Amino acid sequence: MDDLNVKNQPVLKQFVPTPPRPPRKSERGIFGTIRHRCFNSIGNSLLTLCVATVLFYLAKHVLDWAVFNAVFIADNRRQCMDISPDGACWAGVISWFNGLIYGRFPVDEQWRVNIGVLLGLVWLLPLMSKRIPLRNFILLSWIGLYPFVGAYLFLGGRFGEELGLVHGAMTCLALAFLIIIYANWILSALGKKGLNELFVPLVSRLVERRIHLLSFVAVWLLVALVIALGLSQVSLEPVPIERWGGLFLTFIIAGFAITMAIPVGVILALGRRSKLPVIHWLSMTVIELVRSVPLITVLFMAVTLLPIFLPADMEFNKLTQVLVAVCLFAGAYMAENIRGGLQAIPKGQYEAAATLGLGYLHTMVLVILPQALRMMIPNIMTSFISLLKDTTLVSIIGLFDIMLMARNIANDKDWVGMHTEPLVMISVLFFILCYSMSQYSLNLEKRLKVDR
Amino acid sequence: MIQSSTSKPQKSPTKGTGLPSSTTQKWMSLLNNDSSRAVILQAIVLVLVLFGLWFLFANASENLNRLGMTFGFDFLQVTAGFNISWSLIPYDPGMSYWRVFLVGIVNTLILSFCVIVVGTLIGTVVGILRLSDNPLVSQLARWYVEVVRNVPLLIQIIFWFTVVFSTLPAPRQSYHLGEWLFLNNRGLYVMTMESTLSWGWIVALGVALITALYALFRWSKPYYTLSGSRSTGFYIGLVAWALVACWAIWSFSNSTSLSVPTLQGFNFSGGAFLPASFGAAFVAMTVYRSAAIAETVRAGMQSIDRGQHEAAFTIGFSRVQSLRLILIPQAIRSIIPPMTNSWLAATKDSSLAVAIGFPELVSVFMQTSMNQTGRAIEIIFMVMGFYIFISLLISYLLNKYNDSVQYKVR
Fold first, then answer.
1. From B45, which residue of chain A is nearest by alpha-carbon distance?
2. What's the topology of domain B97-191+264-405?
């Protein structure tokens, strides 16, 4: 019956939607859009006019103060006032610029800070290219080894005297690793084998297994030895930690917090998700306690309680105490982000991993965490941004970070009472840093969405 | 050998199941078995933690002995002896450290309460403006949020304090609004009413009046929904209520006198006083919080299906009506959890007012009192305990509220 009907029916016409009409002429073009969206009713027009007026006067005042009436060259605040009483006195900020960046680091030794930061960036540079193999490995080496190089350059001194021998060995190994990364990069671009394969023929005659690993270790140690010989000739002027400051110190604290937040957070989050009651309750207590108190109290706690609760003969400087506190704080917040990611992983992933015969560690490291971390990238970046902002709190307990340096300008006898300009300057700096971080995270989010 | 449980697939059961239970491998199999390994692992962690705690406390008692200090809360009864620049509850230097703690708590709570209320209001408005069709308005709201939330709060607090509030004129040239409000670089002086009646009675009467009005409306509502007009009883009740209210206001105004701030020497006396540090902390934190809340509100509004906007538009709702009746009630559900976090953060952020010397808990107790008494452990314990208590309380209350607004599903 049905078949018959279908056969006898005429072929149905295909539904063709009428194409949408173009917007009205009055709504097209730039003026049309403006008229349609800003002046489409009396109320809206008034609103637009009000906002435009406010914006105009705001921009005019800010520009007048910051640019047109500002003084860029002067010896002291008096002079600034004489030249232009109602403009910004950028001369003060410029004369203190060095202090804002390096704190009280000795001027002759500041090249070391530059070199140290540059080395850190150069180390991370290969990560930008997608063709480099073992990118995770490079990142791990940066987290594990770069701090030694940085500490050596920033602290100065000689190994075995001011600095420990272990520190020296690690510094040499770190530098050697960096050289191998770059040598391999260049060699692979030339189409040759990597530097770490140098001893493969030699090693393969001696042993049969793990030839490449042994060869790599041999090359690594050799390069490190050469560097150690070189470094033993160099003597850097020691700079005590108390003289670190400015943007440099802010970056050290923020960088340390950011790098430590992920490992601490992963451990705490996995602990909180654990089925073992002791571990679960311990992690949960730590996370909840740390998250429910303000950072400033954690900092006060670290500064006052660590010397009491640790052996009397242990030496402390404020920076170490602050780093411990910030690390704990960042870890607890990160743990909640990561836990969110872990909860979003479907149960099938765990079951699939179990079916493959993977143990807990392998399941987590190879299957679950990569997905969870990737899913949580926006939240993790938000945490990083707030960590960067929160580093300003260390100024309250007296570390000379960029905030305290900026506030100190007002105490300089040449620039007495100059509060506004330094604060505006570091606000702009933080804005640029945090805003670019948040834009980068948005970008990353979009890219990862495309990937999936 | 205990059989490994198969109900925990992520705990690597594969290794433990097939091992022979020979005597040499017995302890190995114990390690490879899920349930026994769990016990061993937990025991190790517990022992390590207990050892760590023992280590810390042994060090602490040794260090305290060496420094000649003792542990105990007896210092709370000792006279503090320092002045606190502003306090809502009566305080003078002759009072104890316990009183200092209470002053700090009250000041912290007042500051965070004001910030939460005003910040939420402004934040909601900015969040809605951010979704405005008018590009000028939405971009203005967007850049307000971007600028405010990308600059550290501490910088903003210090900015408002040193740049705005400290550069206000001296008391003699203060800005004033008639005779009842004076603003100068010391703070804000407001006219207050002083009553011979006790405040408890006044508040009780006010509450009773408002409850009565609410009850009246509630009572007349069934008739109103059925007929569309109010019953006569409602109007009689309203008149009676108005008479009582007039009497209350009349008797109140008879028993009160105004306390006007007047300039005496270099400062004002009379009226209520809010210090400049409160103003700066309040403005900075409110602005900062409003930006965070605006983002929350925007995300919540955007999480509503676009069809809801369009449906409201189709029925002929105005923009305000559709927001009030359709969009906000739905958005509330996804807004509340992040809003809770934001409020908790506001409470915690109030501790930053220490940087400009506003006498809140960290400032009066963790800095001044700790420097004077040296009782670091006890003081940090108390301050952290307070913040933890507040956090738990706020999250508990808001979880309750959250449960009540979520979709009811079986």
1. A279
2. MetI-like fold (1.10.3720)
